[in-house]
Write a structure and sequence with these properties.
Order of helices and strands: HHHHHHHHHHHHH
Structural class: mainly alpha
Helix content: over 70%
Number of helices: 13
Radius of gyration: 20 Å
Strand content: under 5%
Shape: globular
Number of strands: 0
Largest sheet: none
């Protein structure tokens, strides 16, 4: 059998550039998602339950348009139903806490705290998944945590208690990532993504409808109707990016979301990060990139031995 030739260096470079462009687009969509949620909760002052429900319902409708209603029987087949439900509940909680935090915090603040999730995952992967980290990565994790301390400055008079919502959302998101890594070996990615949107839509519905408030102006209608679209499109583009380049290549570019939310935060809300948030975010990003580098080196060393 003839061996298929590896892609040429030029083609590999083109694929990487395409993937980086797609990831940049994806993190911009995620920035738009957070900005839309912040507008709805802090400016339009719609109920939190309504906002969270529309985020999941809109994402579910996006998936149905993309995959078709005929795909539902295939999407509901899972080998790990309890884990799919648990993962979906964690995503729901992460979204809920994030919306509660966005009512009072800037976009760059909540995003900086959220980027602590990969470090938390690395710390918890040992006891949860048996994937223990070495001392270098352990140091990087604690340096990253120090960056969050610098960014939010606990004990400082102007620190809003909503920081606790953001930290709770980050922890729920970290646990969500751990369950995602577990489910990768058991269910296709589209099944896992479908359960995330379906469970959130069903579980939040009673709360959302009990406090439903109709928008009274065009900007609020637009924000409410596009909320789930930003999330759905962002996840779809993010998955596409990984078809063209491996995850370690793309991981550093995920931190571009900090740039997008800073720009959006200034243009929409007139808010800019302070110097302490910039320093803290820089430490978190540097720690995350180093952690990704060490994980890649560890895999290469294991493969060559």
């Amino acid at each position: 059998m003839q061996k298929i030739a590896d892609p040429s260096p030029e083609l590999q470079r083109a694929n990487r550039l395409k993937a980086i462009g797609l990831v940049t687009l994806a993190v911009t969509m995620f920035g738009c998602l957070d900005a839309t949620a912040k507008y709805l909760v802090s400016v339009a002052q719609l109920p939190v339950g309504e906002i969270v429900w529309m985020r999941f319902f809109g994402h579910l409708m996006f998936m149905m348009l993309l995959l078709g209603i005929v795909s539902v029987p295939r999407l509901v087949r899972t080998r790990k139903l309890p884990f799919q439900i648990a993962r979906s509940v964690l995503m729901m909680l992460s979204t809920l806490f994030n919306v509660l935090a966005l009512r009072h915090l800037r976009l760059d603040q909540t995003t900086t705290i959220l980027f602590l999730a990969p470090l938390t995952v690395a710390l918890l992967a040992g006891p949860v998944l048996g994937e223990w980290v070495g001392w270098r990565r352990l140091v990087a994790i604690f340096v990253g945590f120090s960056g969050i301390v610098i960014a939010i400055r606990p004990g400082y008079a102007n620190v809003h208690p909503a920081v606790l919502f953001s930290l709770a959302g980050m922890f729920a998101y970290a646990m969500f990532i751990l369950l995602t890594r577990y489910l990768v070996a058991h269910d296709p990615s589209e099944v896992t993504l479908f359960y995330s949107t379906l469970v959130g839509t069903i579980f939040i519905a009673p709360w959302a409808f009990s406090q439903w408030t109709w928008p009274t102006d065009a900007p609020t209608w637009f924000a409410l109707l596009t909320l789930g679209f930003w999330g759905g499109l962002g996840h779809y583009v993010f998955i596409l990016a990984h078809r063209w380049a491996p995850a370690p290549t793309l991981a550093p570019f995920l931190y571009g979301q900090l740039v997008s939310v800073t720009i959006i935060g200034y243009l929409v809300f007139g808010q800019l990060p302070d110097i302490w948030t910039i320093i803290g975010a820089g430490i978190v990003v540097a720690s995350g990139i180093y952690l990704t580098h060490r994980e890649r080196m560890t895999r290469l060393e294991a493969a060559s031995s």
